[in-house]
Specification:
By secondary structure, the chain is α+β, with helices and mostly antiparallel strands. It has a single domain, classed as 2-Layer Sandwich (Alpha-Beta Plaits), CATH 3.30.70. It contains 2 helices and 6 strands. The protein has a 4-stranded antiparallel β-sheet with strand order 1-2-6-3. The chain has a two-stranded antiparallel sheet with strand order 4-5. β4 (62-65) and β5 form a beta hairpin. The protein starts with 6 loop residues before the first strand and ends in a 12-residue tail after the last strand.
């Protein structure tokens, strides 16, 4: 997998914003990506040192649209821990 296809988008929520204070950043990653690929992608894209990568699969919920029940897509999420002193500026103004 190409290194630029691994990271899909950053996850910006209240919890992920609180984790950023301790040097942990959350990204939505490609379903086929593994920890080694996520580490390489973050290090090359943001010029930081990654210490740890945790990955989890979030299964899509079933939602009702009228009489039909459809399933939202599954999402793979990675929480990346950076070396102290390193920072990623995801949103301007932080």
């Amino acid at each position: 997998m190409n290194i630029y296809q691994v990271l899909l988008k950053p996850t910006i929520t209240e919890k992920s914003t609180l984790l950023q204070e301790s040097g942990r950043y959350t990204f939505q990653v490609a379903p086929a990506a593994n920890k080694v690929q996520v580490k390489e992608a973050v290090e090359k894209n943001f010029n930081v040192t990654v210490l740890d990568v945790n990955i989890t699969m979030l299964h899509g919920k079933r939602k009702r649209y009228g009489t039909r029940i459809k399933k939202r897509p599954d999402i793979k999420k990675a929480v990346v821990t950076l070396k102290s002193g390193d920072r990623i500026n995801l949103v301007e103004g932080l």
